[in-house]
Specification:
Four copies of one chain form a homotetramer.
Chain A lengths: L8 H14 L12 H8 L3 H13 L3 E4 L3 E4 L3 H28 L3 H15 L4
Antiparallel strand pairs in A: 1-2
Helix pairs in contact in A: 1-3, 2-3
Chain A binds a DNA duplex (15 and 15 nucleotides) through α3.
Chain lengths: 125, 125, 125, 125
DNA sequence: GTGGTCTAGACCACC
DNA sequence: GTGGTCTAGACCACA
């Protein structure tokens, strides 16, 4: 995995974990990779993974069973979705609309591009 | 002006200046507020405003006349628009589409919200 | 049984055993549950129960008869009471008093709450 | 400052900061010592102080002004008190009462000891 | 100057 | 084996 320069690595790891949960790759209530394991997978320091897990634990997306490991919270998916939706509707969408107006892009053009996007991305694997 | 926590203040100031230019509040080739003036307006350290201006200067959106001040470049508006459009189409839009799919929001809902947004924001003072 | 997050499970198990002894549920000189039995009762790893028993053994509250099991020491109750009293008077009570002052709670309020507490807890099955 | 062995240093630092706020040594909205400064004062690694500050920031007891430092939140005192009171009434007090019953200590004895405690601790400095 | 992040490596308690 | 904490030291962006 490669990391973007302008964002903290631990946040990118947290986001990566979030994706895995949302996409169902890491199933509800499953054990997630141990700190050391993921660290060696991603080629980062264990402390960095630890920070990512602490971050997610603070959001109650994962929970810790002492001496055993981290597990996905039973309602992790809903929580993550709720977080995202709140952010999306509250910040991204208004910003998106303002850009449409400023850049003089019509809703119809967006619609067309969306359909193209779906076609290009909907037959993965 | 209030600043978002997770973004550098100088970038937020640069964005604020960009808005003013795009919206025509700061007219083409006009002198823009001096570093000290804007700093005291926004309640920030003059160095921070300076960084914002240097940033915009680097993008050739504003130019510096030594001893006089900063002025809006003659083609500032087009440049800003070009920058934004490139970023918008290249990064924001695909990200936006991915969010729509993940959060299960339809294009129709977006359209409706857009119309509401226009109504709410189209009667500025 | 549910465990508090911030305290080692084996210590919580030891405390649980202590309670049972002090309350007379586990009678003087009785055999106490085997490691495996208690472990399956409490849904924890047998090693964890073992550590709790070793801890109590170190305090001479229980004794091990090899091949047979653990037994409550003849003077277990007095010992436990002594340990607790020492800890209570030496550490908890001063801490308790400091909290009263900091949180501006009066002795009278404590008294009232104590009476309520007794009423609520004095009709056990 | 000396640290207890059985509690994480960063938590002890957070508690120490909390005391200073509750006792008014660090006034409302004041700037608190910088990470490096406190670290050298307390003879610990800056990272450790950082964790303590992050912890307090998570509880919204202190806030960060970018590039300037950490400041005490305007309602820090109330928040801290609320946290403590919740913990005290919810956990410590019932535990305290249970100990009274188990150890056969009367409320009157507590009262007497409390008066002694006040006399001993009320003429500091 | 400030905080923020990261690494390398260590030691510990716990399960 | 697991996570949790701590140190030493580095580098960075920001005000």
């Amino acid at each position: 995995m490669e990391f973007r320069e302008n964002e903290a690595i631990y946040l990118q790891i947290a986001a990566y974990a979030g994706e895995n949960i949302l996409l169902g790759k890491w199933g509800q209530e499953d054990k997630i990779p141990s700190v050391r394991e993921l660290a060696s997978d991603l080629q980062v320091n264990p402390n960095t993974v630890m920070r990512a897990y602490e971050f997610l634990q603070g959001k109650e997306v994962i929970v810790n069973k002492r001496g055993i490991g981290f597990f996905i919270a039973s309602d992790a998916k809903q929580k993550l979705k709720a977080y995202r939706k709140e952010d999306f509707l509250g910040h991204e969408l208004p910003e998106f609309f303002r850009n449409l107006l400023l850049l003089e892009i019509t809703m119809d053009e967006i619609k067309t591009r969306f359909e193209t996007f779906i076609v290009e991305n909907n037959q993965p694997k």
